[in-house]
Amino acid sequence: MAADKPDSDERTEPASDKKRQESRSKGSVSKSMDLNSAVMLLFGFLALYTLGAKMVSQMSAMFKQVLGHLSSIEVTITSITELIYTVFAFLAVSLLPVMGSMMLIGIISNFAQVGFMFSPKALELKWEKLNPLTGIKRIMFSMHSAVEIGKGLLKITVVGFITYLIVDEVIIDSISLVDSDVMSIAQFMISAMTEIVIKVGFIFFALAGFDYMYQRFEFEKNLRMTKQEVKDEYKMSEGDPQIKGRIKTIQRQIAYKRMMTDVPKADVVVTNPTHFAVALKYDTKKMSAPNVVAKGADLIALKIKEIAKANGVPIVEDKPLAQALFKSVKIGDQIPEKLFQAVAQILAYIYKLKQAR
Prior knowledge:
The chain is mainly α.
């Protein structure tokens, strides 16, 4: 019997805009780190390919200068330290364009995936993040972790296999470089590294494409909502339909009572005679035209007429005018210009009756 019951907690509904905004505010977005790495690898390689010859030439000249300088200096801890510092500083400056381009393209790639995002909530310290048991459970019993481990092992295997094949060829070919100069050896090494990067990069981009689609799928899956969550969110944003209905009922009751208290103040009630009743008031000192102070159909029309009779408000039967007033004028609004003449005739008649009394 329990198996036949629908799972009310099953997340089958796509995430709402509000849920997506909340997720983004917490720093949770769909993003492929593998895609960022693949793009950075590509542009790093392009930078090396473009600047490689110049970098090798500069490094060759620098090492020649260092080796030549060694014979003319006193070998001490201080001199060796200064020499090492000089070499590393030169290498850092030489590699700066490559590293800088990789960092810049990494930022651009990240921005292309998620846009600009600043999430203070993501920086908050939480016990769950610091608790090692929680971390171990997340790693050991999570499909996401299993996929990440699988991707890592696949990348290591592919990179290792390709590197092994290329290095095996390089070792054989390097025998012919025994009598070569530094520049030839450097060019040979660059060629070998280029081959490795191209082949590994191709695999990385294929894996990055898979990872991007997987991350999107996993993100959308985790963001799904239950039917109850959708209902609760609607109630929070739009209000509970039952409460809204109750509020509207109360508002109608208040408006009805206010309207009925204005009927005794009316100058005349125009009727259908049975279906509609419209109460009009005209104060020449305060109003530019007669106003509708009350109106109603059927039972409400009867109630308006009862109150009018009880308070001595004149009732005039005029079917076309009553229908026009009921359909075209809201309570509290003044009558339109096209009805001025018809209403003026009725009010003039009422004023004459009052004067005759």
